[in-house]
Design brief:
Elements: E1 2-4, H1 19-33, H2 40-47, H3 51-63, E2 67-68, E3 76-77, H4 79-103, H5 110-117, H6 123-132, E4 151-153, E5 158-159, E6 168-174, H7 179-187, E7 195-201, E8 208-212, E9 215-219, H8 221-226, E10 227-231
Antiparallel strand pairs: 1-4, 2-3, 5-10, 6-7, 6-10, 7-8, 8-9
Amino acid sequence: MSANLVRAPLECCGITLTDAVEDYLRTIFKLYGRNEPATTSALARHLGVAPPTVSVMLKRLAANDLINRPDNRLVELTAHGERHALDVTRRHRLVEAFLVQALGVPWDQVDAEAEVLEHAISNRLEERIDAALGHPTHDPHGDPIPQPTGEHVETWAAPLAKAEAGSCFRVERVCDRDSAALRFLSDRDIRPGVVLEVIEREPFGGPLWVEVEGRRHPLGPVLADAVHGRTS
């Protein structure tokens, strides 16, 4: 997924960009970035609301040219909607980077905090955070931060689960859905930028054994699917 991030004035919308509206737009963007269909049920699950509530909001978003409904099940962002989705995604990931780098908040806790703060910071504060951090390109989980101008590409490299035994694997992104999984991986020094060695894969759905800085760790299928990067 790619688009040009241009901060649009609020007057461009017939709908007020409330916290809920931004949450829907960012969640739709996140799902498509992960190659997952943005359906009513998926949005309800990710946002923690009932499907009828999702249906009501989707009608509002469609009426204001923020989404398309190619059928009754799927939801797609329009170019207008994607601009706003990129805007709130930028703020979310910048806040995550700030919480980790400036305040030392563990990476398994920053997503929930950023979901609140992403709606509260002003344009001026966003610019100050960006400058103070040295204009970061990625958040603590390896997610690319949309830049104020230019093209943004939201892609995921292959999961560790597909790596062959004997290969070296450089971690680029880690899925941030599960805080417990992030804590587990952090305790084993598995995070973006780390290079690990894939030792062996046990049969019949057994764990994938990896070595990080001289220590071996078994990773079950869920963890191996959450870690993304490239082999060498």
